[in-house]
Design goal:
alpha+beta, four-stranded antiparallel beta sheet, 10 helices
Length: 335
């Protein structure tokens, strides 16, 4: 029998269509509160998949970084392989991805295309937008159950494939994505992270990486829909933007696109269906300045809705996992 003291989770407020929320009274010191309540807060995330903490009144990046570090004393992860740029703050704390305010970031699991991804996401709001900008969450188990079985079977059997083209105009450059600039170092990174690569005559880098689309949760073993098939698809890009990119770079030169694991195109109808299912299962709570949110990155997908006015959400990533360690197809002994 384990001698460990059971972790006590918080009682959270559950409202239909809203993310689980914990309200902290009397405006405590947020860093001290994070340190004192780390275990209970983590148990609450384990129970609900995500929790929004209101009333901490986080005020600046240094305080956010300190609070994040107290919540995950094992340390925060560096940002690697992002498809758009982030502004680094300090101690593993970053800005949200650079993405047009008038275009939503559809539901996804952070870095689900990377060999190593964060098991836990941390968000802190230093400025809430005037309109929109919600970071929605959706339960990946419920999403999986809602997807037609024939689609799930194919993706579970084949996985999914992300194709990327790195150039100096759109999205993150390969220097920003991999953290190295020398070609030999880029190639070493790709080989170490199971990424196929090809240099183009003009120096552009194109990569392909095949990953599982369904994984088992590391704690519960439950199957979760875990990928960025819909978000990084050409069919989720605004039509006028997609047409421009295809015209300039060609259909194979899009900054990112997704395929079935065997390389075949994914139809617009499938991408639309996935986004419709995500919408049905999305929980939304508008940000308020000083909020903190923790999200289990395997169990819950997250999104960012379009917004108006300044918005500043800081991000931390923690609890690294290897995606193939959670691949049920491999665990079942399938070839």
């Amino acid at each position: 029998m384990s001698s460990q003291t059971p972790r006590i989770q918080f009682d959270v407020e559950r409202q239909a269509g809203r993310a689980p929320m914990l309200t902290v009274e009397d405006g405590p010191d947020p860093v001290r509160w994070a340190e004192q309540n780390r275990e209970s807060l983590r148990a609450t995330v384990d129970e609900h998949g995500a929790v929004l903490v209101r009333g901490l009144n986080l005020r600046d990046p240094a305080e956010v970084a300190d609070a994040f570090q107290r919540l995950v004393p094992s340390g925060l992860m560096p940002d690697r392989e992002a498809f758009a740029t982030r502004q680094p703050y300090l101690d593993g704390v970053y800005s949200s991805l650079t993405w047009p305010a008038n275009q939503p970031m559809c539901m996804h699991h952070e870095l689900s295309y990377a060999l190593e991804f964060p098991g836990l996401m941390l968000f802190a709001c230093l400025q809430a937008p005037q309109v929109g900008g919600v970071t929605g969450v959706a339960d990946a188990r419920a999403v999986l159950d809602a997807i037609p079985p024939d689609i799930v079977r194919r993706f579970e059997s084949e996985g999914w494939l992300l194709a990327r083209s790195y150039n100096q105009d759109i999205g993150a450059s390969y220097e920003e994505a991999f953290g190295v600039s020398d070609r030999a170092d880029v190639e070493s990174y790709c080989r170490a992270h199971e990424i196929e690569f090809e240099w183009q005559p003009d120096g552009e880098l194109r990569t392909r990486q095949r990953r599982p689309a369904v994984v088992r949760h590391p704690a519960t073993g439950q199957r979760c829909w875990f990928n960025q098939i819909a978000f990084l698809s050409e069919w989720t890009i605004a039509p006028e933007v997609r047409e421009y990119l295809v015209d300039v770079y060609g259909p194979d030169g899009l900054p990112f696109n997704t395929h079935f694991g065997d390389g075949e195109p994914i139809g617009e109808d499938i991408v639309a269906l996935l986004n419709e299912i995500y919408e049905v299962h999305t929980l939304r709570t508008p940000w308020e300045m000083g909020d903190l949110m923790l999200v289990d990155n395997v169990r819950m997908a997250h999104s960012r809705e379009a917004y108006e006015g300044p918005r500043e959400i800081l991000v931390g990533m923690a609890e690294p996992r290897n995606v193939f360690d959670l691949d049920p197809h491999a665990q079942d002994g399938a070839p």
